Amino acid sequence: MDEVEVVVAHSERATLRVGEVFLKVDADQARIDVEVEAMSRAPVPTPKVLWRKPPVLAIAAVPGTVLGRLGEPSTASPAAWAAAGAAIRKLHEAPLPPWAGRRRRGPDELVAELDGECESLVTNGVLPADLVIRNRRVAEAALRSWTPAFTHGDLQVDHVFVHDDEVTGIIDWSEAGRGDALFDLATLTLGHPEHLDDVIAGYGVDVDLDVVRAWWSLRSLLGVRWLVEHGFDPFAPGCEVDVLKSRM
């Protein structure tokens, strides 16, 4: 009998692993709908859907190992990071999905959300004011108009699997939709700035690196409170607070 491993669990969703099968439990059926549809449309390796019985989605494990983990040095080669960049480029050039994307917000909406979050972080003593103010300024570069692309929407480094310097699978598509391509690149390299050049080399197109770095600050500022409230530690070495400090 395989043991049941809790991969992630919080009030919104949980993912369990039993052998080579992942069970995703999500009360938000729209999120599961997006995940299944996005995986069917994405021109990159994705997990095989085994069955679905709301509120559970069963998918097969993908081969390979994760590209890295936030807060830990990546053991993947520069070529593997470049392969991830090439896969992301293929995704971004694919036909747009018909839905807008759960994370799609215009610049005005982002400004309002960011300003509210910054005020909360300072008022409640979560982060020092100078750290928040500096990163709010850096984040400004990301608050611009952009051309929509087919984006993953939550392309964390441990959502990309590689083997022999090739991408073998990209998981967790519940936030996919039409979005800012540079947000994907920033999410992948968050906490791993030393691999940004490798990713861009594989991506094969010049991008505005100031915007990518601005997304590092913006995503971290928006994420700290949510992470704390859901039992994660953004203060762990190499994680979101350290990312903010690196911008100083």
UniProtKB/TrEMBL annotation:
The keyword Nucleus does not apply. Signal peptide: none annotated. One of its GO terms (molecular function) is transferase activity. Gene3D superfamilies: 3.90.1200.10. Residues 38-214 form the Aminoglycoside phosphotransferase domain. Keywords: Transferase. This is Aminoglycoside phosphotransferase.
